[in-house]
Structure formats: C-alpha cells, structure tokens
Design goal:
Layout (H helix, E strand, L loop, with lengths): L2 H7 L3 H4 L2 H11 L5 E11 L2 E8 L7 E8 L8 E9 L12 H4 L38 H10 L15 H8 L9 H14 L5 H4 L11 E3 L8 E4 L10 E3 L57
Antiparallel strand pairs: 1-2, 2-3, 3-4, 5-6, 6-7
Length: 302
C-alpha cells in the first residue's frame, strides 16, 4: 500500500477539528433547527474531510448533512468545499425509476387513454402478404409448429380429431357434435349480456379511437356470434380475454398510434353579399289606422 493511500484514509487533523465551520455551513444551507448532532468524520483524500451531521427534518428521516472541508498544502486555514444532504443507511428513498412500458399493468387503461404499439410488437404479425411462406412468427410457420410440438411433447391426453372429409369432421367444425346447442333465444340473450358489458355504448368505446373490428388484437370466433363478437387478446386492455362486440373499442387499439384524427365540421358560411330590405314606414294597406287619417306632412326627422 502506498504512502499516499495511507494518508488519504487518515483524516487531516486541522480539517477534522473544523467541526464548528462545518456546522455553520450546514445551518446556513438548512433551515434553523434542522442540523443535529455531529455523527462522524470521513477522510475523502489528502487534507479533504467530510463531516456528517444528523438531520432533524421529519421529511428526511435517516438523512445526514454532509459538509466537506479542505485546506491547501502547508496551510493552516481550513476552507469550505461543499454542503449537501445525503441519505444514510436507514434513509427513506424513492423506488428506482421504471419505464412506463414496464410499469403498465393490465387494467390500467381507462377511457380516453391511448396505448400505441411498437412496429416490432411480437403480439402482432403482418396479415396476408401474398407470399406462400408465412413469416417466422406466424402460428402456421414451421418454426412455430416445431416450438409448439416441443412444448406439448409431455402431453399424452389428447382429443381424438375425426378424419377430414367425414360427417363427424363437418359437425366438429360447425360446433354441432353435442347433444344440445344454443337456440336462437339463447344466442340473443347471450349477445345482449355481452354487448352491455363490452359494447359500443360503454364509456370506453365512446372514447376509443377505433372499434375492435379493425384491431389486430381481436381473435375471431366461430358460429353465428362470430359475426358480431370476438375475443380481445391485448393484455393491457380492460377486456383482455373477454368476448367483445366488434363495435367496442379501447385505447389499446393496435393502430392507435396511426389512427387518423376525426374530421371536424366545416366552419359556418356567412353570406355577406346579399342585403335584406327593411321598410322605414308601414305600407298603406297595413296597420289599424286608416291611411286617410294620417297627416300629409312627414313627421320626425328625415
């Protein structure tokens, strides 16, 4: 260990004795009665010492006033370097800052809020591009098929799928391989309930930039109800995992960042070219006084 390092760990005697100078500096920076007892002294370097004082401010419990003093080489006059309020080991500190994209949680989206989606959002993929090969993140791509097969390798209880082209396969596709299915009345009552919770008349839908029918997070459902409803797959939407009306909407729309602004009505047009005639005197055939009783001379000023 070098001599310079040894000297830097030993507080300078004159700087360490300048407690009154450090307290005066702390009291000047703080409010009266805030600076408490002298806590400790720490050597910052050669002839550089920091004095710590207790902070009595209730809002800064566990904090300490740190006053750094120093002196020049071979000088006996100690001067002030800086005064600052620093947290101690038991100080109450604010939590570490987290970006909004990581703080956002499902259910935080309210009426009128917009949640733009990134261009490379993994939850979305391009639609039909005209190419035979699907994109790598598509659910029908080879890469995704291999991944799903590897994740489901330990699953042994699988549902037997009927052979393609059979009547059972057609019934399976139409959702009719059950003893009983919903009647028309059952479909209408279910649609009324769902539309009341996640329909076009809700406050969230009224403030949305667009409806769910154009949202990339909408998952289509089969059957006749698929013509009016779908499943929301946006984890930040209040309707995540719920059946929503195609006319419903929220600020988490997949195209919220690129939605055009609503058209404003044109300003009113004022016709200032024409003139309306207002007669100064009543016509002879109007009024309750006969024209013969009126004086011949004009009354009043012209």
């Amino acid at each position: 260990m070098s001599a310079a390092t040894t000297r830097s760990r030993t507080p300078d005697r004159l700087c360490a004795e300048a407690v009154d100078l450090a307290r005066a500096a702390a009291e000047e920076a703080a409010a009266p009665g805030v600076v408490g007892e002298h806590v400790s002294v720490v050597a910052e370097g050669d002839r550089v010492v920091t004095h710590f004082f207790e902070c009595k401010d209730p809002a800064y419990r566990g904090w300490r006033w740190a006053v750094t003093v120093t002196r020049a080489s071979r000088a006996k006059n100690v001067t002030l370097d800086e005064t600052v309020l620093l947290p101690g080991s038991e100080a109450l500190l604010a939590p570490e800052w987290v970006p909004w994209s990581e703080r956002l949680r499902p259910g935080d989206l309210g009426p009128g809020d917009l949640l733009p989606t990134d261009a490379d959002d993994l939850r979305l993929e391009p639609g039909w591009t005209g190419e035979d090969a699907p994109p790598p993140n598509s659910v029908v791509s080879t890469e995704m098929a291999e991944l799903v097969e590897a994740e489901d390798a330990d699953v042994t209880d699988r549902t037997v799928v009927p052979a393609r082209g059979t009547i059972a396969a057609v019934a399976e596709e139409l959702g009719m391989r059950r003893a009983r299915v919903l009647s028309r009345y059952g479909l209408h009552t279910a649609a009324d309930r769902w539309d009341e919770s996640f329909g076009a008349k809700t406050p969230m839908a009224q403030a949305a930039p667009a409806s769910c029918v154009s949202c990339g997070f909408l998952v289509a459902i089969g059957g006749s109800l698929g013509q009016a409803f779908g499943v929301c797959a946006n984890e930040f939407s209040p309707a995540d995992g719920r059946l929503v009306s195609l006319s419903y909407g929220c600020g988490g729309h997949s195209e919220a960042a690129v939605m055009p602004k609503p058209l404003r009505p044109a300003p009113p047009v004022l016709d200032s070219m024409a003139a309306d005639e207002f007669p100064l005197r009543p016509t002879p055939d109007t009024g309750s006084v006969p024209s013969a009783d009126l004086p011949s001379a004009d009354l009043g000023h012209s």
